[in-house]
Every structure is written in structure tokens, then in C-alpha cells.
């Protein structure tokens, strides 16, 4: 699963992206990887959590709702 969000506001010079992806980890579980930054740049990334598929999906859903609340849109 991979979700790509963008927030563009030219008046404020705001061109941002946010990606949420579920990937397998080394322990046969699921890791939630988050990547964010300015559109066109490399951005930053971190592993937000690791555990069962259900836990990772719940965390991804919470992050998605938060980003949508802050003005990001699905791309």
C-alpha cells in the first residue's frame, strides 16, 4: 500500500508532499514508512512503526486523516 499526498499553496510558497507506505520488515511483520518534504526535493523519511498488518494500517489511517485535515490532497 502506498499513499501519495500533496499540499500546494502558491500564495504561501508551499509545495509539499507526504507519502505513507506499508512495507515488509526483517522480522516478517509490517513497517510503516513515512516520507515528506518539498516537491522536487529528496525529502526526509522515517519508519513510523512496526508490527502486525492491522496495527500498521490503523496507524496509516490516523496519519492520513491528520494530513487531510491539514490541507493535503490525494494524488
Features:
alpha+beta, five-stranded antiparallel sheet
Q: What does this 3D model show about the protein?
A:
This protein has a five-stranded antiparallel sheet, with helices on one face. The chain contains one helix and five strands, in the order ββββαβ. β3 and β4 (44-51) form a beta hairpin. The mean pLDDT is 94. The protein is of the alpha+beta class. This is WGR domain-containing protein. InterPro entries: WGR_dom_sf, WGR_domain, YehF/YfeS-like_WGR.
Q: So what's the oligomer here? A: single chain
Q: Give the SSE order as H and E letters.
A: EEEEHE
Q: Could you tell me the number of beta strands?
A: 5
Report the average pLDDT across residues. 94
Strand order of the largest sheet: 4-3-2-1-5
Number of alpha- plus pi-helical segments: 1
What is the structural class?
alpha+beta
| Cα-atom radius of gyration | 13 Å
Which regions have little confidence, pLDDT < 50, spanning 5+ residues? none
Termini, distance in Å?
14 Å
Instruction: Give the overall shape.
Output: elongated
Instruction: Please indicate the percent range of residues in DSSP E strands (runs of 2 or more).
Output: over 45%
Q: Outline the biggest β-sheet.
A: 5 strands, antiparallel
Helical amount:
10-25%
Amino acid at each position: 500500500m502506498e499513499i501519495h499526498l500533496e499540499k500546494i499553496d502558491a500564495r504561501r510558497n508551499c509545495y509539499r508532499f507526504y507519502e505513507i507506505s506499508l512495507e515488509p520488515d526483517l522480522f516478517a511483520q509490517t513497517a510503516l514508512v513515512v516520507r515528506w518534504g518539498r516537491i522536487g526535493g529528496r525529502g526526509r523519511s522515517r519508519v513510523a512503526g512496526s508490527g502486525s498488518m492491522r496495527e500498521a494500517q490503523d496507524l496509516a489511517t490516523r496519519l492520513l486523516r491528520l494530513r487531510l485535515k491539514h490541507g493535503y490532497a490525494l494524488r
